[in-house]
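Entry:
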Amino acid sequence: MPTILLIIGAAILAAVIVVLIIWRIRSHRFHPDPDKLRQQRELNADLKETGFAYEIKGDYFYSLMNCWQRQVGYCRLYDEAAPLFNMIMDCEPITFSYRGKRWLIELWKGQYGITTGGEIGVYNTIREDVDTDEFKGTFYENIGNKEMLNLSFVLRRNGKVILKRSAMHWWLTGFKLGQFSDTDMLTMDAKIVFPDQGMKDAFLKALIEIGYTKKEYSSGRKTVSIHYAAPHSPQPLSRNEAAEALVQQINSNNCKLYEFTTAKYSQTLDKLEYIKAMVPELYKLFIDSLYTRGVYDAFEWIKEWLEGRPPHPTPNPLPPPPPEPHPDPPCPPVCPCHPCRPHPSNPRCDPCRQYCSHAHNCDFDDSTRR
């Protein structure tokens, strides 16, 4: 037995040594592409299906204007599902009504897998609330180009600026790869420019109603600036202490793995090119972590319901009713007389309640009932 264990141990050690040798050889042979624009184009080609792209000037990832996420709208179930996909975020939904539509402007900041980031999303709807067994609430739809707002934010980690974003958009985002943050480390200073004072006033009223004080916001004729440090809205029920600790431990470990693997390079494009060549599994992890589609696919049935299609999953058909019991067969005619015995098809028929007055005539006698 000890000999077998020694052989197995030696085989494992040999395999590890071989892997390390191959890694070292490949590592020495690898040289990142000096053409940064070409690196950026190749990375963005890999990212296209995720709906994101990389900006070399600010060293951040961001959502594209016409990404697939624009087709899926938004509801609170998305926030509830986020921890299942390694996203721990502070969520601040501000809802208000304006010109016949119900609007949602939501701010997010937190840890998205192996990225730290922030978002501002703008949605609206003219529909009634969804009312199904699976979900009861408002489903907001994507806005049109003419409804987009001038959005901007500065995201800080422990007081230090880590990214800035500004654009006319419906979903303004920014994410820093390989950086780990707890949500209380992050602050977002957001600014929203509205098309007119009426819409600004409706939004500002809703902002104050959820608990923001004058120390946390300022406003102009058509603008509102928000200092977003801690959310005033109730957070998703799925983000409980135990779940958050588990998810954040995974996120922290993955960020450390990314930094350890790419420690010899300082630029994100070089790091990712190196990972793609050396550890394609880790590269895929990064690609998949950018707003995994599973969050939205899990609730595709809501869109089907809104579009008049049968909701998914469809309810199971009702089972057929049980067959009605067959009535007992009638007792046979009382004739001729025979020895007392139970009737074979109906034991309740009691031939012993009969007596014979003569050989060919049987009469019923109540006195013989049991």
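The chain has two domains: 22-306, 333-370.
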